[in-house]
Amino acid sequence: MKRSENYMNPYLAGFGLGLVLLASYILMGRGLGASGAVASFTSWGVSEIAPSQVIGNGFFEKYLDPERAPHPLKDWLVFEVIGVMIGGFISGAIAKRVSFSIDRGAKISDGARLFFAFIGGSIMAVGAQFARGCTSGQALSGGSLLNLGSWVAMICIFGGGYLLAWFVRRLWQ
Amino acid sequence: MTAPLVPETISADYSLLIAVISGCGMGFFLERAGFGSAKKLVSQFYLHDMGVFKVMFTAIVTAMTGVFILSSTGFMPIENLAMVGTFLPSQIVGGLILGIGFVIGGYCPGTSAVASATGKIDGIVYMAGLVAGMLAFAAIYPTVEPFLNAGSMGQVTLYGYFGLPSWLVVVAVIVMAVGGFVGATALEKKFAHLKPEE
Asked: Which residue from A73, B75, B89, B195 puts its CA 20 to 30 A from B158's CA?
């Protein structure tokens, strides 16, 4: 089934997204994010499956810290990302864009696309930890507070993408 | 009454409900903009569809303008808002890694959640990749920890760093964004031939 590509005007969608972010600041005093939720989820998973692995590891201990959340999954960002999925589903359902499919360039196989999706996700998780946030937490939320580190990270995100784009163009042609 | 409204005006019991509602709004507008599609997102890096830049900078300008107006009225002092500290070495490296992963994987973490929710199998696999990446990072954490914390500058803003009044930087960002929108639209026309055929 061909998905509808009748997307909202980017300025209107951006204005809506900006108001949501502003509301989050007014209500909670914090911005939006995404990668932190995956870090919490992963830390919780490891603490359940292989509890000995979390002891002494500063990464897991940070996300399992009871000061951060009473339970690793009762974390603000985890619930926010659940909301992202609900909101995304609602919008997709209205536009008839919900269907099982693989989004890829015409020149690569489904298997190759899924391989690179997995690799890309792994790379971005590591990048988000170094940058202390991803496109949502740093570029969008920190960017709107005129945070110096967020702007540097944002410029480097675009820079990294443009540097590599030519070399991986076959993925998307 | 001052912002943030939680916990003084609104009970902290509602925090997680607010999280879900905020996320809903974010996911809704990301999907509306077409950001549940990897092909649409990476078009940004091939210049024939600058939607990522346009949506992101409109959102930044909107939220920034609101934040600085509300801060100047005293309703929401900007000091009350959570701001991540600046660590330039790790943030430069992290930003470059994020950009590289974006153009390989086709999503960023937030948009992969939207893609997964609308049935994109590549979005679901991307999220599995995120978990794998977190595990890999946990494994290297003890080694990279000194680098992560190198060059700590505390909470620094652009206007603080350059010693400018905040309103001037706000205006400069707005002017830059509008100029960027004009330039982005010109680039889309110039590189329209790169758009893959359906």
From this structure: B75
Of B23, B67, B156, the CB nearest to A25: B67
Q: Distance between CA atoms of B118 and A77, rounded to whole angstroms?
A: 20
B83 touches chain A (CB under 8 A): yes
What residue has token string 């960017």?
A143
Query: What sign has the CA pseudo-torsion A80, A35, B80, B54?
Result: negative
> In a 10 Å sphere around its CB, with 0-12 CB exposed, 13-18 middle and 19+ buried, how is residue A57 labelled?
middle
- What tokens appear for B17 in the block? 């409900």
E-strand stretches of chain A: none
Give the percent of chain B with pLDDT over 90.
Answer: 97
ipTM of the complex: 0.97
Q: How close B16 gets to chain A, by Cα (Å)?
A: 6
Q: Which pLDDT belongs to residue A3?
A: 62
Break chain A into its structural domains and give their ranges. 1-99, 102-173
Q: Are B22 and A139 spatial neighbours (Cβ–Cβ below 8 Å)?
A: no
Cα angle A73, A136, B12 (rounded to 5 degrees) comes to: 45
B15/A80 Cα distance (integer angstroms):
10
Is there a contact between B121 and A100 if contact means CB atoms under 8 Å apart?
yes
